[in-house]
Amino acid sequence: MIHGLMGLLGFGWLFLSSAWRAEPALEFKGILQQGSLVIGQTEPGTQIFLDGRQVRVSKDGKFLIGFGRDAKPESILKLVTPDGTYETRELKVAQRQYQIQRIEGLPSRKVTPRTEDLARIRQEAALVRKARELDDSRTGFLSGFIWPVQGTISGVYGSQRILNGQPRRPHYGIDIAAPIGTPVRAPADGLVTLVHSGMFFSGGTLILDHGYGLSSAFLHLHRILVKEGQQITQGEVIAEVGATGRVTGAHLDWRINLFQTRLDPQLLVAPMPTGATQ
User: Fold this and answer.
1) Which of 27, 65, 116, 276 has fewest C-beta within 10 Å?
2) DSSP string of 218-231?
3) CATH classification at residue 64
């Protein structure tokens, strides 16, 4: 497992080869690989497009890009300078191999929902998508990330899930086993954009926006201790670990998104301390 080496911000700036240091300047903090978040720095006033989608750039030239679980080996970054000239750069994205995880003992309805469940599932998915589309200038991610809970890692990002013997979608978070009621802390500063006490699959669900389209989701919660619209600081207790939704035991499922792109939370934090408990 590749870790964040004391968190994403622990990486030094990656200066691209001499051919890439021509105007506009471009530097990266992070590793270009599937599941990763990368902080970029360019000349102020430059516009950035990743694979055709415009990326928010701060006044001082900082921006975020991310690569999903199945990101292709190459992405195209387009830079448009303040004077209107542009260039494109090819980014090489390292590919990963993922585990297969088999989970038995789930209620059959949580693996194969009934027809009457489908409208509810669609409505809840729309709420989550909306919360993840917030695009503002807050920079909570610049403080780096901490583990929201410490405990045994019981599920990892990207693993192919076999549920009750049936292949299902990959897992897009990191599962941390902990007793019901264990405090969940904000991994970085942010704004609460979604609170839901009981979604069909994810149970008690909370989404925290860190700015620039980057958000954390916390699933299967027992209790949520914050409200939508509330400003949160890193380390603040925001919820309690639970066993709600589609689960076989108490744990926190922590997820990171850059808009709708699902990223690997484990790449943002230091390795879990050996024998760690809350």
Assistant:
1) 116
2) EEEEEEE---TT-E
3) 2.60.40.10
Task: Give a yes or no: residue 2 inside a domain.
Answer: no
258 plus 120 within the same structural domain: yes
DSSP per-residue letters across 190-239:
EEEEEEEEEETTTEEEEEEEEETTEEEEEEEEEEE---TT-EE-TT-EEE
Can you tell me the distance from the alpha carbon of 45 to that of 83, in angstroms, rounded to the nearest whole number? 9
**What is the identity of the amino acid at 251?**
H
Q: For 152-166, how does the pLDDT look when each residue is reduced to its tens digit (9 = 90+)?
A: 999 999 987 777 777
**pTM to 2 decimals?**
0.86
Q: Does 146 share its domain with 200?
A: yes
For residue 106, give the nearest of 17, 204, 201, 224 by alpha carbon: 201
Whether 271 and 3 have beta carbons less than 8 Å apart is answered as: yes
Q: Give me the count of residues in the chain.
A: 278
Q: Give residue 4's region: left, alpha or beta (phi > 0; psi -120 to 50).
A: alpha
Using CA atoms in the order 168, 186, 55, 71, what is the torsion angle rounded to 10 degrees? -30
pLDDT tens digits for range 213-232:
999 999 999 999 999 999 99
Last residue within a domain, chosen from 66, 92, 118:
92
- The total domain count for the chain is 2
Q: Is residue 274 part of a domain?
A: no
Instruction: Let me know: does 80 contact 46? Beta carbons within 8 Å.
Output: yes
